[in-house]
Design a protein that fits this description.
Blueprint: E1 5-9, H1 20-29, E2 34-38, H2 39-42, H3 50-58, E3 62-68, H4 76-85, E4 103-109, H5 127-130, H6 132-140, E5 145-151, H7 159-174
Parallel strand pairs: 1-2, 1-3, 3-4, 4-5
Helix pairs in contact: 1-7
This protein binds flavin mononucleotide.
Flavin mononucleotide binds next to helix 1.
Pfam families: Flavodoxin_2
Keywords: Oxidoreductase
Protein name: Flavodoxin family protein
Length: 175
């Protein structure tokens, strides 16, 4: 049976200023079994409907957090989403565990090239290290951590490279 994949996109202007995340999100949305939620569009006032988010999560076998890397982290709404949706008594603690066994994958886009995200590169850390807080969070709520999907050098990609990344993404999230 194919997986039910929920892609939560955290880009402050997905259908406007975004180039890469928009292409990835549209490729995901065109893939059978994949549901995409544009979180900033759903919550322009930054008031997250926690029940709606939790209901969407319950139906998923795999959850994808898709976002551009902003200051070696995520846009702020993803952090807020974690703080509010991964609630005590729902995601963890007594009466929690509702996400146990659902896979979590991060899909990130970065302006820098991949060689800058190495121990020797000028960022001094890998993307895996940048994502460590999310990996520990996944572990804490019982979600198996899937290898992240990353697109680098976003400012210099040709249209063809963006289209290829979007095709690769549609495969990766359903593999
Ligand atoms: C506020 C802000 C912070 C950023 N910080 C980083 C960063 O820490 N590392 C990086 O590689 N790129 C950084 N970038 C570049 C974005 O990651 C890049 O523009 C984005 O992934 C492109 O995707 P988009 O076309 O969907 O917007 C930053 C961009 C902005 C606007």
């Amino acid at each position: 049976m194919s997986k039910n994949v929920l892609v939560l996109v955290f880009h402050p202007d997905l259908e406007g200023a975004s180039r890469i995340n928009r292409a990835l999100a549209h490729a995901a949305a065109d893939t059978p079994g994949v549901t995409v939620r544009d979180e900033y569009a759903l919550y322009p006032d930054l008031r997250i409907d926690v029940t709606a988010e939790q209901d969407a999560l319950i139906r998923a076998d795999r959850v994808v957090w898709q976002f551009p890397v902003y200051w070696y982290s995520s846009p702020a709404l993803l952090k807020q989403w974690e703080d509010e949706v991964l609630a005590l008594g729902w995601a963890y603690g007594e009466g929690g565990g509702r996400l146990e066994g659902k896979e979590l994958m991060c899909a990130v886009t970065a302006g820098s090239t991949s060689d800058r995200y190495t121990a020797e590169g000028d960022h001094g850390h890998t993307m895996g290290e940048v994502l460590v807080p999310m990996e520990i969070t996944a572990k804490y709520v019982g979600m198996p951590w899937i290898k992240p999907f990353a697109v680098y050098d976003t400012f210099n990609l040709t249209d063809e490279q963006v289209a290829r990344a979007a095709r690769d993404y549609a495969q990766a999230i359903t593999a």
